[in-house]
Amino acid sequence: MIDDDRVFKALADPTRRFLLDRLFERDGRTLTELESEVEMTRFGVMKHLRLLEKAGLVVTRRSGREKLHFLNPVPIRMIHDRWIDKYTERRVSALADLKTELEGTS
Amino acid sequence: MTTTTTGTTQIYRVYIKATAQAIWGAITTPEWTERYGYGGRVEFDLRPGGAFRSIADEEMQAAGMPEVAVDGEVVEVDPPRRLVQTWRAGWNEEGFTRLTYEINERPDGVSSLTVIHELDGAPETAAMVGGANEDQGAGGGWSEVLSDLKSLLETGKPLAG
Q: H helices within B15-56, ranges in order?
């Protein structure tokens, strides 16, 4: 089961966020392709990708002899629904209340 | 084995506390599909070559969606584990894409659902199902649909809104 802690932890590292951004630009990349964009050893990139995979943020598929990495945005969506919507909604409804109040008194 | 094309294939995975059978049902029966995501009612003839349609609800039709929001053909059926179909958006002229659902039930009662959408030659559809047009009211695409499906199967209720 993917839990929020893993996702937050995975996102807490700049290299991992950078890798996700690269996959967002173009999905389905090999380790070699991703490695060429980061100042880091192949082993280092592999470690980061494994952590992203464990957090469910990256899904891999085999295509012939190659292993392709895909960004899986669903865990981020769930964090958005759980943690972001909740707080922004309140601000939006506060503004809506303010509008009602101001328009009601004018 | 699916051959994935770099740059045009989108993959989504969600873990759901539900049996593979429950997830299969939620994907292939209209009583379920109208309760999450975009709320379309699916019609599946579940055999290779069988027809697939997703009928938009009144709200979606009022928003400009054609009655047959999506159509396609079933390619491969292995209930409750794997379903491959073609998938054509009714709101543009981009033609057929290929969609695969993979369901993998684990002994601990959690199943993973993986959606593989191959979108070669369908950039507009890709943007839509990828959630890129969400701020224009087009919805969050597969991420939202799967997040909603998970919520429905686990709690009996879809996400609010």
A: 20-28, 30-33
CB of A48 within 8 A of CB of A42? no
Please report residues of A whose CB lies closer than 8 A to that of B7: 26-28
- Rounded-to-integer distance, Cα B155 and Cα B149, Å: 10
Closest CA to A23 of A64, A65, A78, A61: A61
CA-CA distance, B72 to B88, in Å (whole number)?
6
Ordered mean pLDDT values, 10 residues apiece, chain A (106 residues): 83 96 92 93 95 95 92 90 73 72 68
Beta bridge partners of B7: none
> Dihedral of the CA atoms A81, A86, A91, A93 (nearest 10)?
100
Rg (chain B; Cα; Å): 15
Q: What is the pTM of this model?
A: 0.84
- CA–CA separation, A88 vs B142, rounded Å? 22
* Contact assignment for A27 to B15 by CB distance below 8 Å: no
Query: In Å, how far is A105's CA from the nearest CA of chain B?
Result: 30
| Chain A nearest CA to B144, separation (Å) | 7
pLDDT at A106: 46
Element (H, E) at A92: helix A85-105
Enter the ipTM. Answer: 0.75
Q: What is the pLDDT of residues B28-40, one digit of tens each?
A: 999 999 999 888 9
Nearest-angstrom CA–CA distance, A37 and A9: 22
Closest CA to B3 of B93, B113, B120: B120
